[in-house]
Amino acid sequence: MAIYFIPFMASLLLVLCSRLIPRSLTRLLVLFVVLGCIFLAGFRYDSDFDFSNYVQMFEDIPPLTHGWTAFTSAIFGLYIEPTFALMVAIVKIVIPDQCIFLLIAAVSLLLYYRSFCRVTAYPALAFLIYLGDGFYLREFTQIRFGLAVSLGFAGMCALYEGRVSRHRWFIIFACFFHFLSVMMLMTQLWVKLIRTRRSVVTLSTLLLLLTVVGVFEGLIPTLAGVNLAPQRILDHIDVTEDAGKVPAFILMASYGILMWMTRVIRDDEREFFWVSIYALSFAFLCLFSGFDLMRRVSFFFSVAMYVVASYALQRRRFGFVLLSIAYSALLFSARLRILYEYHSWLFQ
């Protein structure tokens, strides 16, 4: 299990040295860590609970050279997005099944690296927090969702830079890999409406109080009752009642981080964009607090913390930086519980 700690410790070391070495060299060193993570995720074998499911899925999807009829017949019983299955069928023409893990990990992690370098002054810190918050949860287990989140993050970076059309294209591509990506279409409208500290604090506090008293716990079953929830959602409703509820600690920690963010970034600054994005993450966390599958929507927007932490370091707001790292380390320890001893198919 010690191998899982290597990227985290390497990134932590880079964060500690980031003010002592040139920024260009820091970016290069972060890239080496990113490449290491690509190989770590791409060459893993049976190291997580979802790996065998993906292997079986990839084996069931024939290369597109076998014909369109064979492809459509094979994916009829598979519960995945058809566009993802089509990508697998095309890729399998030129590379073996398990190499697809490496390809997806490379695309996802390089998108993160590109985005961090574009919108943060300290990509090492952003990548460190991502390692604890997302890497082992998404790139290791929920690989389709992981790729969708990285595409969504790249889209938000484009929106931050004022490239609205590019933002929309990233969302379209994200939808190819996970249906929940469609929820990102509200990002542009949200950041126009939620632009001040007062609006973030007021709305988030109200949502927290409503969540605590259980107002949103029956939201998904209610939507299902009036035929406003898709079949894929309905299939998950019969899970044990308390199994999918958001842990109280995560809810309160997210709220505390958001409130601190509003003090790190001032209302009149462009960077408040990312505070607004994190507020959207918290809003979805509350709305879907009683239903795990839909609560994943919040992950699309929680990536804003990676960026805000970099701004905090730039302004010497070390308290928020330490809070972000501590929260990431705590999530990192929790993610390790879903992993097994590391194995690589490269050396089988």
Please characterize this protein's 3D structure.
This protein is an all-alpha fold and 348 residues long. It has one domain. Helices cover 68% and strands 0% of the residues. The chain contains 19 helices and no strands. Helix 2 (23-42) packs parallel to helix 7. The longest helix has 21 residues, at 99-119. The radius of gyration is 20 Å and the shape is globular. The protein starts with a helix and ends in a 13-residue tail after the last helix.
Short summary of the structure?
The protein has helices at 5-17, 23-42, 51-60, 68-75, 82-91, 99-119, 123-139, 143-160, 164-177, 187-193, 197-212, 219-225, 231-234, 248-264, 272-287, 292-295, 297-302, 304-314, 318-335.
Key features of this structure:
348 residues; mainly alpha
Topology summary:
Layout: H1 5-17, H2 23-42, H3 51-60, H4 68-75, H5 82-91, H6 99-119, H7 123-139, H8 143-160, H9 164-177, H10 187-193, H11 197-212, H12 219-225, H13 231-234, H14 248-264, H15 272-287, H16 292-295, H17 297-302, H18 304-314, H19 318-335
Helix pairs in contact: 1-2, 1-7, 2-6, 2-7, 6-7, 6-8, 7-8, 7-18, 7-19, 8-9, 11-14, 11-15, 14-15, 14-19, 15-18, 18-19
